[in-house]
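User: Okay, second chain of the day. Same drill as before: sequence in, structure tokens out.
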Amino acid sequence: MTLTVTEIYRHPVKAHGVEALPSVTVETGKCLPWDRKFAVAQEAAAVDFNAPEWVHCNNFTRGVKAPELMAIRARVDTARGEITLTHPRHGAINFDPMDPAQAQRFVDWTRPMIPASRVAPTALFHVPDRGLTDSRWPSVSINTHASLAALSKAAGKPLSPLRFRGNIWLAGATAWQEFDWLNRDIRIGTVVLRVRERIERCHATSTDPETGERDCDMLKTLQTNWDHRDFGIKAEVIKGGTLTLNDQVELL
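Assistant: Same drill. Structure tokens below.
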């Protein structure tokens, strides 16, 4: 059975929007360019803006605490260094994340999406040359449509891939086959990745990414049907190159 790439996504601001790509060039030991390049620090965040380094996702505003964020869509103008975000209820905003005033304008734009019971967002944060993935190491996430179909059947409704904020989606696998790839290398296009971890999910995946409203209990569905809360895998780029839609996947 042939494995092929069906979608490629990046998330320029962690938990604040997704952008589909036709192709992307990645470097060894790095995330996809502009993937989780920025994150929104919340009031209680233990981050150092003067000497930034990777910190746990609990320091940032996320979809698990603010479901409305899941409905944001993104577009990056890499030449201008600008991000455009849109939301079905809160309109659109265009900003340069490296300009402090524009970055603050973006943070203010997100405030109505954060429940009053949650810690408020304060400032945009980034670590030079490092994506703010949930893993301590720069990761690329991979998901399969076969596992999504199995999960959709268990949930009793079609589930959008956007619930899972993955980077690469594959067709042609069997359900949960990707878990067998742990500690193996895979080649996609000219890129070689080493699969390192399964992805344990949070309640952000219980939110409909079209509406930003919770409509199911994804963790309960996973736990009840498969006795775990995992969906997808994390991999490390060990040989850089280019990924393109319809690329075939080879297990090495």
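The chain has a mean pLDDT of 97.

User: Thanks, on to the next one.
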